[in-house]
């Protein structure tokens, strides 16, 4: 009598099938997708999800209006050669320049006001960190539209989205020559001398503000 052939081994089950009760149907692709979403998918705002995304650093143009316009200064800050050709003549709109001591400070102003300077494409995250350290906590990185004039004056300038360093304190206090309480608190936080709930140091800032205002009147 002939021996019946061996039964071929059964195909391996999908990974999710091992968790299904006997007799259950395979869930649809749509259902599997719904089941895979995080539990807090519907409770988080779009802004929270955007913040939670891993950030991928990309090259970006920066607009410089002060000492960083000079290739020698920029080369020193970045600790690498910077040629004059890598700096392009540029301008931005909607800002004005105030003086913070001996340094220029960029502050927002009505549209139409033009600030001239140079544009430079920052090549790495490390370079951006060096620039931020050089500018100190008195300045913050801000988004802007950079206009790059062409060689032919009759043509419209090229527009690119970029970054610049904007004054981080109270712009109105800067214009009026008042003591900047906002910048004082920011500097204390950057030096880890002030916690968000540190009321004592906030009271000190308030007293210094009042004292400075009294001196300005006298």
What is the element layout, followed by pairings?
Elements: H1 29-36, H2 46-52, E1 60-64, H3 71-78, E2 88-93, E3 95-100, E4 103-108, E5 114-122, H4 125-135, E6 139-148, E7 158-167, H5 171-176, H6 181-190, H7 199-217
Parallel strand pairs: 1-7
Antiparallel strand pairs: 1-5, 2-5, 3-4, 6-7
Give a brief description.
With 218 residues, the protein is α+β, with helices and mostly antiparallel strands. The protein is built from seven helices and seven strands; from the N terminus they run ααβαββββαββααα.
Describe, in plain words, how this protein is organized in 3D.
- The chain is built from seven helices and seven strands; from the N terminus they run H-H-E-H-E-E-E-E-H-E-E-H-H-H.
- It is an alpha+beta fold and 218 residues long.
- Strands 2-5-1-7-6 form a five-stranded mixed β-sheet. Strands 3-4 form a two-stranded antiparallel ribbon.
- The radius of gyration is 29 Å and the shape is elongated.
- The N and C termini lie far apart (121 Å).
- The model is unreliable at 211-218 (pLDDT under 50).
Note the total helix count: 7
Average pLDDT: 77
Helix content percent band: 25-40%
Strand order of the largest sheet: 2-5-1-7-6
Q: Main sheet? A: 5 strands, mixed
Helix/strand structural class: alpha+beta
Low-confidence stretches: 211-218
Global geometry: elongated
**What is the succession of H and E elements?**
HHEHEEEEHEEHHH
Span from first to last CA?
A: 121 Å
Estimate the strand proportion: 15-25%
Question: Radius of gyration from the CA trace?
Answer: 29 Å
């Amino acid at each position: 009598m002939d021996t019946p052939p061996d039964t071929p081994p059964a195909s391996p089950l999908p990974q999710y099938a091992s968790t299904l009760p006997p007799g259950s149907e395979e869930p649809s692709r749509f259902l599997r997708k719904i089941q895979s979403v995080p539990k807090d998918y519907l409770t988080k705002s779009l802004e929270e999800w955007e913040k939670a995304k891993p950030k991928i650093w990309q090259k970006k143009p920066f607009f410089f209006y002060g000492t960083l316009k000079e290739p020698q200064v920029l080369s020193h800050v970045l600790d690498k050669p910077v040629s004059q050709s890598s700096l392009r003549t540029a301008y931005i709109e909607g800002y004005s320049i105030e003086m913070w001591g001996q340094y220029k400070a960029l502050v927002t102003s009505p549209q139409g006001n033009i600030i001239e300077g140079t544009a430079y494409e920052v090549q790495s995250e490390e370079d951006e960190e060096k620039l931020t350290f050089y500018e100190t906590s008195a300045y913050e990185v801000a988004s802007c539209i950079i206009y790059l004039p062409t060689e032919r004056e009759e043509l419209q300038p090229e527009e690119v989205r970029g970054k610049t360093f904007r004054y981080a304190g109270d712009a109105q206090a800067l214009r009026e020559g008042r003591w900047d309480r906002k910048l004082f608190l920011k500097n204390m936080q950057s030096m880890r001398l002030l916690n968000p709930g540190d009321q004592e140091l906030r009271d000190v800032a308030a007293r210094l503000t009042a004292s400075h205002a009294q001196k300005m009147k006298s």
